[in-house]
Write a structure and sequence with these properties.
By secondary structure, this protein is an alpha/beta fold. The protein contains ten helices and eight strands.
Length: 306
């Protein structure tokens, strides 16, 4: 049974101390009781509030080891409030806004914490898109002189896949790539769209080969309907993404860190109909304890192109 606070008042009444946060994390990690991460044995010695030792193999582990919270200097009490604030803001929050809200002195601290949460927003076992899926690309970045469209310089290319639920949005997937070649487009579709699905694209040559990969490929030709938006769902997602980056983050997103923001936008978009902030809090914490830890120095360097 899913157990989470429904409102801010319930949240504040429930998580009043570090101990209450530890108890909640423990139940999320081991809902059926503790299991040693090394041997799977169920009996343990509690050496401290955070440290447990397996009675069988003597392996020691902490409540946060192997999670996104590993090696954090911040208390779970602070993390919990940060997560609640992040999911309760419909359009998200910038690191600067969160720094002011939580009263942190160092901007970099909250910036790294927020990126760690964005990493946790990607569920490791998430299902691929299916049925009818629109796929297109868009360029993200400020206005710069030079070539527009495919091949534009100084901007980041983002691939978009969105389920078509009878002309309504389904789930989406976003990914930054180096260019619009088939070497990037085809793997993106294979990773994010279930084989056998119908994939709708424009007539760009980079999509050639989708049929041989097991997809029903429908090409909408630009010259068949002049003036009509032929991939309306993908274009709408692109517009919403750009508006979100400009609105919430004032367009101050470096290309090397764009992937983290794409993960957050995807998380929020795919849960846009959720009426419960508490459930979003629960889901994000649930994913945070199942995502491998990442170091701050790795986040500072940004992700490389796929």
């Amino acid at each position: 049974m899913e157990d989470y606070p429904k409102t801010l008042i319930e949240f504040e009444q429930r998580f009043t101390s570090e101990e209450s946060c530890h108890e909640y994390i423990f139940k999320l990690r081991w809902p059926e009781g503790f299991r040693c991460l090394r041997c799977g044995y169920e009996k343990v010695w509690f050496r401290s509030r955070e440290l447990y030792r397996c009675t069988h193999c003597r392996y020691e582990t902490s409540i946060t080891a192997g999670t996104i919270f590993q090696d954090t200097r911040q208390s779970l009490y602070i993390w919990f409030r940060m997560i609640w604030y992040v999911v309760s803001q419909k359009n998200g929050v910038s690191a600067l806004g969160l720094q002011r809200t939580l009263g942190f002195q160092r901007y970099e601290t909250i910036w790294i914490m927020l990126h760690k949460l964005r990493i946790a927003m990607v569920r490791p076992d998430r299902k691929r898109l299916s049925s009818v899926v629109e796929v297109d690309e868009t360029y993200v970045g400020g206005k710069r002189p030079g070539k527009r469209g495919r091949g534009a310089s100084g901007k980041s290319l983002v691939l978009i896949a969105v389920e078509d639920k009878e002309n309504h949005f389904g789930r989406i997937r976003l990914q930054r790539v180096l260019n619009a070649s088939g070497a990037n487009l085809i793997p993106f579709v294979k990773e994010n769209v279930e084989p056998g699905s119908t994939v709708r694209t424009d007539d760009w040559s980079g999509y050639t080969g989708l049929t041989s990969e097991g997809y029903q490929h429908i090409v909408v030709c630009e010259f068949a309907n002049v003036g009509k938006t032929l991939l309306p769902l993908a274009h709408r997602v692109a517009a919403l993404l750009k508006r979100w980056l400009l609105g919430t983050h004032q367009g101050a997103v470096h290309s090397s860190h764009l992937d983290y923001y794409l993960d957050e936008f995807t998380f929020r978009f795919n849960r846009r109909t959720s009426r419960s902030r508490g459930k979003l809090f629960y889901r994000l914490l649930q994913q945070a304890v199942n995502v491998k830890p990442v170091k701050g120095q790795d986040i500072r360097g940004g992700r490389i192109y796929s």
